[in-house]
Amino acid sequence: MGSALRLVVYGASRRDAVRAWQAVSGDVERTDAALSRFRDDSDLTRLNRGAGPEWHAVDGRLYAMLATARRAQRLTGGRFDPRVLGVLEALGERGAALAPPTLASDVTETGEWLEREPRRRRVRIAVPVDSGGIGKGLALRWAAGALRRARISADGVLIDAGGDLVVEGRGPDGAWRIGVEDPADLTAHAAVLETSGGAVATSSVAVRQWAAPSGEWVHHLIDPATGQPGGGGLQAVTVLGPDPAWAEVWSKALFLAGPSSIGLEARRRGLAAWWFEADGTLHMTPGACQRTVWTRQEGSL
Amino acid sequence: MAGNRPVLHLPITAAVCTGVYAISLAGVTALQAIHEAEVTEARAPLVDAAERSRIARQSADASIREANAALQAATERYLAAVSASDALDSSLAALAQQITALSGAVNQMPRGGALPAAPGAVSAAAPPPVQGTTGASGK
């Protein structure tokens, strides 16, 4: 995933902590081998190279990612769409080398970009797809599952994969306290939230920005509706939810909603969300306000 | 005498036939009644089950109606809450304008008159310790 992995285990023996790390890091490595588009040997890269009319038998994790991505596309009204990979590559964020698309359209003759055969775990995709915006969340979901299966004796755990986190149980001070990074100063927090279970994910343009071949300054959060970097006027969106994959999906979808729609959309869906406008103003939904224990500035609902 | 014999036999034969027919009819009727009783007996569990199913369906219908009413009430409350939230948004925007105006007025005030430092004062702005940070990722 190209992100640092960090595990905090509270109230466990040293031996259990080591076992926990082995379970988590091993599971994340398996997800990385399946879903990374930056690895030449990943299952996703192999599938992307075979995009077109052919069917492919795929790894279970890749199958689950594709199915979840299709569902996310439906539930977000198209704001989440893994087909933005072509745009990212054109803007200069390159992953493993891919062949040119073999289909003229980004959907097959059935009108779908993804077709599945669940029994034989086979898929065919019309165009190469990106695991960004969902892959890390799925990695956290599966790593937390691996940790539960390892039956570690601990009061609580926190898994952090490059700024997206999942927590269970209790932390050193009761609930786990998570800092929300200030997009204007990546060394500082703009807010602190408390939770004793669930996941926190952030979509931010504070780091992944670069000059496109055209010379324009762009970022990685692509609006499928325009094929351009979206969410103009927002710097970062953080979502707290029960599942890390869906927290990541919603943080991206809300970011792409933009500053004029994000509040209404987040409230309509009952999401606990924090977001920063371009001038650094922090906003939050009522659900997020309930979880917030500290802010650097007064946040607005 | 010999000429009257067929005349006498005919009513007797008719009476005998009628009797046999009546007895057969009674037997068939009895068998039919027994069979129907058996069928009724055999079908009783099915009839009972159908009745229970009907009652359960009525109960489910009632539950659905109640749930629907609850949903409608919740929807109305939710819409009212959204309206209240929008009103709150407007109030907050107005408050923000007032605060901006107040800030402007404060900036016009003289900057002298500093109070002496309070020994042992704790900054309320210090963030609490955290176990993790959510933010931008590299990739």
Question: Can you describe this structure?
Answer:
- The complex is a heterodimer of chains A (301) and B (139).
- By secondary structure, chain A is of the alpha+beta class.
- Among the domains of chain A are: 43-125, T-fold (Orthogonal Bundle), CATH 1.10.3980; 175-295, T-fold (Roll).
- Chain A has helices spanning 14-35, 43-49, 60-75, 85-91, 135-149, 244-257, 262-268, 286-291; strands at residues 5-10, 56-57, 114-117, 122-125, 156-161, 164-169, 176-182, 185-195, 197-204, 209-211, 217-219, 222-223, 228-229, 234-241, 272-277, 282-284, 292-295.
- In chain A, strand 7 and strand 8 form a beta hairpin.
- Chain A is globular.
- The mean pLDDT of chain A is 92.
- Chain B starts with a helix and ends in a 5-residue tail after the last strand.
- Chain B has a domain at 7-96.
- Chain B is mostly helical and 139 residues long.
- The model of chain B is unreliable at 117-123 (pLDDT under 50).
- The chains are: A alpha+beta (301), B mainly alpha (139).
- At the A-B interface, strand 5, strand 6, strand 7, strand 8 and strand 9 of A face helix 1 and strand 1 of B.
- Strand 7 of chain A pairs parallel with strand 1 of chain B, so a sheet runs across the interface.
